[in-house]
Every structure is written in C-alpha cells, then in structure tokens.
Amino acid sequence: MKTPKKSIGNWEWMILGVVLLILSIIGVVVVAKSKEYYCSPVEFEIVFDAGSSHTSMAVYQWLADTTKGTGVVGQLAFARECGDAGLSSYANDPEGVVPGLQDCLDLAELVLPEYTRKDVPLFLAATAGMRLLNATDPGKSDAVFEVVRRTFADTPFYFENEKSQVRILSGNKEGTSSWISANYLGENLGVEPVTGGIVDVLTPREPIPTRPTLGALDLGGASTQITFIPEDPSQIPAEYRSKLRLYGTDYELYTHSFLCYGADEGTRRLEANLVKESGFAEVTLNPCSPVGYSYVVTGEYLWKAPCSKGPKAMEGWGSEVTPAPGVTEDVMASIEYRLNGTGNPDECYRVTKSLFDFNATCAVAPCSFNGVYTPLPRGSFKGISNYAYTTAGIGLTTTPTIDEFISAADDYCRKTYEELKVLPEKMKYKILYCFRSMFIRALLFDAYKFDEKTWDIEFTSEVNGIDFGWALGFAINATGWIPEEPACVGLAPATFIGFVVIFTIVMMIGFALFAHGVRRGIFGKRSPRCSVDKSYHPQPQSA
C-alpha cells in the first residue's frame, strides 16, 4: 500500500509567502539606501621617501581626469618623520621600522575617505642608504624590505605588486623625480600646480604657457643629484640621459647621481681623512667644527661604512680610507678618536675640496669630478633638501649671490660653539652647517662650474607647504600609468535597477503564495451543497 504524499498545508503556504514578502521588503529598503551612487572625481596615492637619514610620507591627490595623460597633483598630507632613522639603520633590527611606518600609515588612513582606501596605491622607494646596504649586505636589505612589505600588506590600501611598490629607487630616477617636482611647482610644465586643498584640486584649469625648464640640485644624506636640460641634449651619453613625457610634452634630460657624495657620508669621509692624516692620533683637529666643540667618533663609524671601505667606496670616491695597521673589524667599535673644532673656514674649504678628484681622467668632456661627464650648467636651478636647509641655516635668503654665499659660509665657520648656542634650530644641525656650506661651495663652483654668468639658483625646501623633494615628482610621473579607476560607493545604476527588479519579483511571488494559502483556508472550510449517504444501497424490486 502506497503512503500518500503529504501536501503543503494552508499555513505553510502563508508562512512561506510572508517570509518572501519580508525578505523582499528588506531588500528593497537596503537597495533604496544604496541608490546614491558616487564615484570620487579624485584619485589618491601614498609615497614613502625612504632616505638614508629618515623616512617621510606624503599623501597626494589629483583629478581622475588627467591632463594629456598626467595628473595635476596636490599634497593632501605630509609627515616628515616616519621613525627615528633611515631604513638602512635598521639592518640589524628590521622589526624596528614598524612603529614609525605605522604612525604614518595611521595618518594616511585618517585623511583618506574609507571607500577610497582599497584603491589607493601605496609606494615606498628607498634611496642611497638602502642602495649601499643592498650592495654590501643584500640579506639584511631584503630582511628590512620584507618587514616593510608585511606591514604594508596589513593595511586597507592597494598593495598587490609588492616588489614594485616597495623597492630601491635608482639615483637617476631620484634625480629625474626631483626635476619634475621643481618644474611642476615652478609652473614650467604648462599646467598650474595644485597648491591648495580639495577645492583647488577640483578647480578647472586652463593650460598656461610653457616656460624654459629649471634644473634640479638635490643633496641627500648619502648621494647628490644634478638634473637639467643642457644646451644640446643630443650630445648626452646614453648612461646620463633620461626621457620623460609629461602633460603631452617630451623632455630629454641630463641626470647623474653621485653615490657617497651626500651630506652625511661627506662628513664621515672628511672625519676619516682627518684622523688618517693625523697618524690615527687620539686627538685630531677638525677645521670644519666650531672652536670649543669636541666630540668622539668610533673606528667602526669611520671604517666600516660602505662609503669608507669596499667596492662602493671605490665606485663613489675612487678610493678607500682604511684603519690603522693591525686594527681589525672586531675591535673597531672599541677604538675612539676625539676631534676638536678649530673653526677655520679656509682650511675647511681646502680639506673639503680634497674629497673631490678634479684631475681624474675624463673620457667624455666636460667632466665635473671623478671623471663624470657633466655639461656646463644652463638656465635657472632649484637647490633642494640639504642645499636649502644649509643656506637657511647659515642665515641666507633663498636667492643669495655668489659673494653672499661665500661670505656667509666663511662667517658661519668662524663662529664658536658658544656663539652657535644662541642661534635657533637644534645644535645637532648647527654644528654641521660649516662643513656642509663648504661642501656645497665645492660642488657648485669647483665641480659643476657655476660662475657669475650661470649662477641662477633658488634654494628652497617647500612651496606653499608642499615638500620640494623627489616624492612629488615620483607621484606625478606615476599618474601616467596608475589605472584611471575611480573609487565608488553605492550601487551603479544598472545594478540598482537589477536588484529592484529581482526584489519586486520576489515580493510578487511572496504575495501570491500568501494569497494562495489564504484562499485554500477559506474554501477548505465551506460546507458541500449536497451530501450522499454512502451507507444507503437501494434494493432492486421484483416484477
């Protein structure tokens, strides 16, 4: 005997209908709240400048509708210090980079709208400090980068190409990026730069006349760069040439980065030379330090640095400075040398000039120093980073004459330690400005051959609060290849209509099921119009 199939009862039809009705109503309400579809007209980018002495971060913004393929970029936020030192300083403690990076990442998260974050690319480009570490100990360099990449991966930002988004920036790319920054902010690229907030970003811009471009002079901690368009760009050897396309215009630049010729490495090399020339005496005189100032350096600091000894020292300086005979690496840290300042500008300039080899063989003329091809300067220049910090530190305006620069440098070097104490700024910087001003003097006049006819340099570190470093130029150049996919919130019109149709159909089905259950219940309770007594069986009658 077959078991009869159990049919769906009236209440079950009604409950199913009610459930579908409720779900469809909730769906319609949710979709209605998402009706406001909005795509940001602005794109964003985060760039970390990992220099040899410190790491900074900038958040940039630009109108998604680029100008002939290049974004007109503005600075949304800037943090000058993301940690206490440069990345290379954490070679023996890679995890030490995390707190400083995280502080700056938190700032970026704070200033960026939540719905945009997943589309905001995150970059870190490391310069000379990490170039040197990677060349001398790639294992330690990789370990530092691995921690950086892990930290970046744990953020809400776009970070899918970890090898290209965290990497070492070549010296020539650094110089080129500084050149872009200088010319963009100087209004030399045919566009009006963004120097304000979001209103300025969204303000329509008319093209402005292009003007002769500026050269860029950048002095970092472990390298220095010079980039400009010489009189005849076709004569630039391939290894010194950089080509760019910005805002629809092509540019051909001369650029070169002198590794180890940064302000910090120059100081170290000078001190190593002074100690060696003194016969490794316990007390050495330093003409570039003020009278009354005495300090101690270790043998490890002087001799173990990549720019002091090894292949990078040979590549950068053309020579090594070696420790005293018999001094091995395991005892360098315990050896100390005291340097006493004498505040002698003429002697300081002499020993500083000795850091440059002006007599090296010049394969392709003209050469600046160490046999490096460098065309004669042409046009106006911007001096950024330590060029700007030093000229301001010795009391100059942003546009001094040659005589004013030389006079100010000499006067500053004559100041005693007691006289420096009353000047503003931190002492750790004030005691360095004498050497750095002489280093700049040797670079500009003796190496690059600026003279009264070609001297047209403005020393500046920012414009309207925007940092004048290479990171801005890096960001501008990147807008040409970052996909133009604006971040959106809400539902696109087609998606919105689709969901409305689906939930409307579900609502209609729910209503139909509920009505079906109600009808079955009503008709199931009605009495039949006639009934048959199945127990009555009429008998046939006999004839």
From TrEMBL:
Q: One of this protein's GO BP terms?
A: nucleoside diphosphate catabolic process
UniProt KW keywords: ATP-binding, Hydrolase, Membrane, Nucleotide-binding, Transmembrane, Transmembrane helix
The molecular function GO annotations come to: ATP binding; GDP phosphatase activity; ribonucleoside triphosphate phosphatase activity; UDP phosphatase activity
Q: Which domain of life is it from?
A: Eukaryota
Q: Where is the active site?
A: E174 (proton acceptor)
InterPro entries (alphabetical): GDA1_CD39_NTPase (IPR000407)
Where would you find the membrane-spanning parts of this chain?
12-32, 496-518
Residues that bind ATP, according to the entry?
Answer: G221, A222, S223, T224, Q225
Write out the GO cellular component annotations.
Answer: plasma membrane
The record's similarity note reads: Belongs to the GDA1/CD39 NTPase family.
The identity of this protein, by name, is: Ectonucleoside triphosphate diphosphohydrolase 8-like
Which organism does this record belong to? Acanthaster planci (Crown-of-thorns starfish)
Give me the gene this protein comes from. LOC110973959
